[in-house]
What does this fold into?
Amino acid sequence: MTTTTPFSAFLDASEILTSAPELLIDQRRRFTSSPDVILQPKSVESVQKIMRYCHEHRIPVIPQGGNTGLCGAAVTQGGVLLNLSKLNRIRDIDLADHSITVEAGVVLQRVQEAAEAAGRLFPLSLASEGSCQIGGNIACNAGGLNVLRYGTTRDLVLGLEVVLPNGELISHLQPLHKNTTGYELRHLFIGSEGTLGVITAATLKLFARPKTTVTAWVGLDDIETAVKLLTLIQGHFAERLCSFELVSRFALGLSAEFSQIRQPTDADWHILLELSDSVPNPLLAEQLAEFLYQNGFENSILAQSEQERQDLWALRENISASQRKLGTSIKHDIAVPIARVADFVRQCEPALQAAFPDIQVVCFGHLGDGSLHYNTFLPTIMSNEVYEYEDKINTIVYEHILANHGTIAAEHGIGTIKNHWIPRVRGETEISLMKAIKAQIDPHNIMNPGKLLP
It folds into this structure.
């Protein structure tokens, strides 16, 4: 990267980085960026100036948040790497409208803490919440642990501020809960992975903080029984169910060893579920225990203290870290209709084993919304050389996903590693419409070129 650039004419020197190696290597250490310049604007006005110049001179721009992505969506060879970390102000908290307005570079955990300090809850919760940024969460429509009750990021956004490729600003940050004045344009940018514009701020929904939380771990023989439990518990406890996480025996064993926490139950499959109530409800734990017993789910425990609750969640949240001893994984962020999850799991692993007899599968995820993290390992290959087999493994997994009416991307996005699969999950008319929208908003294709669209 050069130390002097045309951007020096209109940006502060601190907004032009000459060295930032931590921004160039992706989360999985799979891709390395080599941009012509790294820019870190401190204001929306600076973002507009950057985009005007790049639009005029046809310079690619790759937006980047906390660099926690898993699909290569913030990777570039050439062009401008536009890191939004310095756009990190919390602009407003509005308790009347249950909303918080934050800039794109605010770390998710800080949004959660600001909401808590105001006596409210921002429910988006991810493993990377200590480093991922809200702009990136919006750009990939992040999911996480509480989708079952609160929805994905898309459901949590009331308004957006976006700089278009030509530098023009669209700003609708008012916390309006109803607005039927034409097309809802914010939904174009949510999940667009930086291909249509630069998200600079957002107004997000807040909720009442739970006054009662009950956490249980249930051991089960199979996924069909887990789906039965989900159906029964939703019918009985309704909106109080906020998390319903599936963990395989193999995944739990890895995490228990890594976490040095005893396995709560002995079973082939496990469910970590949590109920919450916004009012004090001292009977909720007793009600859940009685419900589980009466319905035959006796191989279960309820957390009796906050420490026990944290231990149960550690077993779930440490699965990703515990996998590292298996080497480099080929990850799959997938979703199928909840009723088809068992069929997919039962069909896919034997097909993988037929092609790769020693393959190991770590299966876990958000059964409450049908999405799974389905990670595969070849134990004889511990390094990134495993990606030599990625296409073959992906083909087996994705063909089974499509056969079960699912999707190849649930919450991590598409980036560069999945975009050639888009024609299999989106129709020709849909793809043509997406390309037409892209061409209208970004006619010179400078916004994150090569990502998302096939």
About this structure: The first strand starts at residue 16 and ends at 17. The CA atoms of residues 184 and 233 lie 34 Å apart.
